[in-house]
Design a protein that fits this description.
mainly alpha; 131 residues; elongated; two-stranded antiparallel ribbon
Length: 131
């Protein structure tokens, strides 16, 4: 994922959090009745775990690339600095490389797959102060 797509995804998640008013969403699952449906749901879970693993690896790789890029930019800034003020500016312009794991796509695909297998998925919205 490019840094621009990462920023757009992060921006969308921030807007979603503001609109939701800090409510939390969870899902209740009712397994399919048939043996075939249950086996299908197991395959869905396996695909979800692989998807999450891939997303975690992608995030780890992007984190590493970001850290290397930031370190290179910082060293280049220090090498071109001609005064204490410019050196301090290098410190101020240094960016953080904390990137989120965006595994929601994996969860959404799992819910769709689970439903196709004959299971049921119920979205539960919990609002602040609600029991």
């Amino acid at each position: 994922m490019t840094s621009q797509r990462w920023f757009v995804s992060l921006f969308f998640l921030a807007i979603l959090a503001l609109v939701s008013g800090c409510e939390t969403v969870s899902y209740d699952y009712v397994a399919p009745d048939s043996p075939e449906g249950k086996q299908c749901a197991v395959r869905c879970a396996s695909v979800r775990e692989q998807c999450i693993s891939n997303e975690n690896q992608r995030a780890k790789t992007e984190q590493s690339v970001c850290e290397r890029r930031e370190e290179n930019d910082y060293r280049a800034c220090l090498n071109s600095a001609r005064s204490d003020k410019q050196i301090r500016n290098c410190d101020y312009t240094r960016h953080s490389c904390s990137l989120p794991n965006l595994t929601e796509r994996c969860e959404e695909e799992y819910r769709q797959c689970f439903t196709i297998c004959g299971g049921e998925v119920y979205r539960v919205v919990n609002k602040p102060g609600q029991r």
